């Protein structure tokens, strides 16, 4: 019964996040002179869910606690930014909003407004949240990331201790012709098998595979002559196609493969085996991984210094009060 009540409360938090008309009373935390309410936690949970970052965690208290900690960190950063008078001009916020509308709302402001109406959030409030996001990102860059460097010693140690990470998987280049079934009721259109036979006959006569792909193929790479360069067939194609490719030798063309009424013809153009990358070949990836790790460590240390200098009080999970 207790677990059920906890789950219901968690669902109420999410409901409050999706409809701010549902206000969840109570304090979640204090950060110096600022307060974080339970409703703030619900709003943050809703943002995480819409961004696809909430995950499948079923430990409701853990999700709640992690979200509170996230909001505490955010508040500490914003308070420091206020002390340093860090802000963004209105035109910069406008530009960021235009980017978001283009990336996430199909460049349609009406879709953004519809989402804000659904979650009962005024545009001005959402705009302030975007400004805060920009400030938090800028502060992290200025206070942490700009000072992170990957020294030659760091990179050498990373490569030495994590050699298994720096491998290039096997790659295959194939050329594809995908034949679309005739439209229902179109009795004049040749069947997939008829078109396939025509293509095989023309290939035997010496016609260019790429030209035939451009002419006949419904595949997304048809304009490029049907070429799929350096792919992992298991990831790029359906299992039956990957199996067909695996059975081919370089230069061979498959028979017509039936894919639920569609026809698939593939030629294996090139194949390379998996290999361990040299330090030089993996240089950019090594540098990126080292900077990411050192950046995370530096960020945690920075946040801990902010916490040590602040008054922070975390209130118990609401059901336990």
Topology:
Elements: H1 2-18, E1 27-31, E2 34-37, H2 38-50, H3 60-83, H4 90-104, H5 109-118, H6 123-143, H7 152-161, E3 167-168, E4 171-179, H8 192-204, H9 209-216, E5 227-231, H10 233-236, H11 239-247, E6 257-259, E7 262-272, E8 275-276, H12 283-308, E9 312-314
Antiparallel strand pairs: 1-2, 1-9, 3-8, 4-5, 4-7, 6-7
Helix pairs in contact: 1-2, 2-3, 3-6, 7-12
Briefly characterize the structure.
This protein has 321 residues and is of the alpha+beta class. Helix content is 53%, strand content 14%. The protein has twelve helices and nine strands.
Q: What is the end-to-end distance?
A: 17 Å
Q: Level of helix content?
A: 40-55%
Share of β-strand residues: 5-15%
SSE string: HEEHHHHHHEEHHEHHEEEHE
Determine Rg (CA atoms, Å): 28 Å
What descriptors fit this protein?
321 residues, alpha+beta, Chitinase A, domain 3, four-stranded antiparallel sheet, three-stranded antiparallel sheet, 9 strands, disordered N terminus
């Amino acid at each position: 019964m207790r677990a059920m009540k906890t789950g219901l409360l968690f669902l109420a938090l999410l409901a409050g996040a999706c409809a701010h008309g549902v206000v969840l009373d109570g304090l979640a935390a204090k950060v110096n002179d600022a307060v974080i309410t339970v409703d703030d936690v619900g709003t943050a949970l809703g943002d995480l869910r819409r961004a696809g970052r909430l995950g499948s965690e079923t430990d409701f208290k853990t999700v709640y606690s992690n979200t509170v900690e996230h909001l505490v960190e955010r508040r500490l950063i914003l308070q420091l930014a206020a002390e340093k008078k860090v802000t963004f001009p209105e035109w910069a916020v406008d530009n960021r909003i235009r980017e978001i509308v283009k990336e996430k709302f199909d460049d349609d402001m009406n879709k953004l407004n519809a989402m804000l109406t659904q979650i009962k959030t005024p545009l001005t409030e959402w705009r302030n949240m975007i400004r805060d996001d920009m400030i938090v990102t800028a502060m992290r860059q200025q206070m942490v990331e700009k000072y992170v460097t990957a020294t030659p010693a760091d990179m050498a140690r990373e490569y030495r201790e994590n050699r298994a990470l720096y491998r290039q998987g096997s790659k295959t280049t194939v050329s594809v012709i995908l034949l679309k079934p005739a439209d229902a009721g179109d009795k004049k259109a040749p069947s997939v098998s008829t078109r396939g036979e025509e293509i095989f006959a023309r290939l035997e006569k010496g016609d260019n595979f790429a030209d035939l792909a451009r002419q006949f193929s419904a595949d997304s790479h048809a304009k490029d002559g049907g070429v799929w360069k350096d792919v992992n067939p298991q990831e790029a194609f359906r299992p039956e196609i990957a199996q067909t490719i695996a059975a081919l030798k370089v230069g061979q063309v498959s028979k017509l493969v039936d894919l639920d009424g569609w026809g698939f013809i593939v030629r294996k153009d090139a194949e390379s085996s998996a290999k361990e990358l040299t330090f030089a070949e993996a240089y950019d990836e090594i540098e990126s991984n080292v900077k990411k790790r050192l950046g995370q460590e530096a960020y945690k240390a920075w946040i801990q210094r902010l916490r040590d200098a602040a008054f922070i009080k975390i209130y118990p999970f609401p059901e336990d009060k």
